[in-house]
């Protein structure tokens, strides 16, 4: 927080200083549990609670009850209905007899993060970058950004600097924290693995975790095979980026100093069309111009 205040107090604007004072008193001293990494694995928003509250209002048809009436209504209607939705089996009465059947419309509780096919696709793209993953202190270290290689010495220095916290600015701290990602891989259930990146802190899964699980042979990308773009085969001959290397340079030809370019079919067609399109004035023998019709610029 000191580096954050140092960064913004540098501008010397009163409104910013007032906000920093409010932010420090309200969210750093009074309510300091708002950080994503404050309690890992626990939801940081009240979205589920608000959704639960909305279902109560719909089931009660927005009626207002006293506390006793509300509890009686919950016991007689809400709890029974919700318990049947979450129950794996249902007890039905057929021909006067109770029959236990499977609940096909069960709403299950998720005990692990849900990973969609899009998440697998993004992890596949990240894995194709061929970045090195180093095992150090039973953790997996991988570089971020354009850097692809990493050594155990880099991992050691990263952990030492992380403990020392000798950063002179807020931007330097953020850049350092994002330079290397650390994954604690859970081999029993790789979906419960932990990563130090900001995306994992918000979604409890990321491309780094999926890629580490793939390289450890704990998962595969077979399920997203149809979602990957099909790359066309490489054509024969030189590539377009290096085709100019086959052209002769000035001085290589004794007769002419001009570049000798290979004549392609398209250039032949263009040259023949240009010859047909050009006309010469029969009187002054100058090239004629064309708008709607051919005319001579000398007005012959």
From TrEMBL:
The keyword Zinc-finger applies. Keywords: Metal-binding, Zinc, Zinc-finger. It comes from the Eukaryota. GO terms for molecular function: zinc ion binding. Residues 232-260 are annotated as: Disordered. The keyword Metal-binding applies. InterPro entries: Znf_SWIM. Residues 181-217 form the SWIM-type domain. This is SWIM-type domain-containing protein.
């Amino acid at each position: 927080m000191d580096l954050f205040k140092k960064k913004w107090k540098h501008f010397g604007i009163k409104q910013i200083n007032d906000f920093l004072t409010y932010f420090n008193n309200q969210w750093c001293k009074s309510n300091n549990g708002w950080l994503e990494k404050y309690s890992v694995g626990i939801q940081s928003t009240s979205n589920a609670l608000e959704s639960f509250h909305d279902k109560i209002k719909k089931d009660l048809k927005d009626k207002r009850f006293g506390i006793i009436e509300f509890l009686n209504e919950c016991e007689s209607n809400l709890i029974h209905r919700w318990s049947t939705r979450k129950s794996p089996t249902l007890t039905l009465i057929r021909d006067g007899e109770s029959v236990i059947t499977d609940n096909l419309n069960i709403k299950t509780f998720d005990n692990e993060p849900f990973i969609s096919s899009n998440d697998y696709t993004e992890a596949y793209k990240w894995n194709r970058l061929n970045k090195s993953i180093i095992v150090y202190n039973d953790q997996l270290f991988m570089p971020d950004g354009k850097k692809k290689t990493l050594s155990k010495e880099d991992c050691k220095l990263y952990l030492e600097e992380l403990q020392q916290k000798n950063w002179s600015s807020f931007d330097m701290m953020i850049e350092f924290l994002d330079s290397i990602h650390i994954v604690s891989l859970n081999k029993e259930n790789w979906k419960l693995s932990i990563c130090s990146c900001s995306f994992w802190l918000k979604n409890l899964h990321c491309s780094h975790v999926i890629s580490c699980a793939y390289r450890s042979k704990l998962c595969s990308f077979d399920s997203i095979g149809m979602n990957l773009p099909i790359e066309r085969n490489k054509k024969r001959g030189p590539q377009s980026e290096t085709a100019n290397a086959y052209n002769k340079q000035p001085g290589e030809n004794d007769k002419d100093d001009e570049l000798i370019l290979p004549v392609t079919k398209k250039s032949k067609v263009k040259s023949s069309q240009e010859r047909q399109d050009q006309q010469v004035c029969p009187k002054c023998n100058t090239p004629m111009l064309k708008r709607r019709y051919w005319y001579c610029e000398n007005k012959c």
